[in-house]
Amino acid sequence: MGSTLGPPGLTAVVLQPSYLPWRGYFDLVDRADVFVFYDDVQYDKHGWRNRNRIKGAGGLSWITVPVHAAGAVADGTPINAIAIDHRRDWVRAHCETLRHAYHKQPFYARYAPLVAAILAKRHALLADLTIELTVAIARELGSTTRFVRASELPLHGSKNDRLLDVLDRIGATRYISGPAAHAYIEPERFARAGIALEYACYAYPAYAQTRPPYEAAVSIVDTLFALGPATIDNIRALRTAEALIA
Fold this sequence. Notes:
This protein is α/β, with parallel strands linked by helices. It is built from nine helices and nine strands.
């Protein structure tokens, strides 16, 4: 194992960068001392890397960042090598879509300019855009979490070996994962490495959306435009009653 980049005893989360991800993503950011963007793993074409869902007056819809990703999955292209396709003005379209969906929400005017300003930078690479958006929103919510890109670390191995190498290099002794990781994580490997393994349970109170029925699995902007600074309170609200299942 390599030398660590920080003091031991840290809680860590490792997740792929995603486009304006939902509350659960920011819940994990909030729980972590160090949050690692897993930006150098293979791009998944139909995942959340370049798209998310919003809820406007017409119901649920997708906002998708166009990318040059033909053959990316077959070629094993990493997320941090995926280029954004700027041949059409998708930035203006996303800003207009968000305005149309949320302009009546109480905190739209406060946070929409932040999102628009980052989109307007016209990043060349998808990961640069999604990471900057995530960090900016986390800081708006008061996060002091340290952010690291996996591509900045001299990592070895694959799958669980590589994940454990990430945790070792940042000095983590506790790893919090989303529940979907049950399918591939080998808990005995974490136990042997002295890393406590926990799975987060995603449970958050409902709030007033643009129209019923309530939809929980939507982009953070839905929550942010509705609740503003209280978004972090909503994320933490049920944590005292929640059991983290190892």
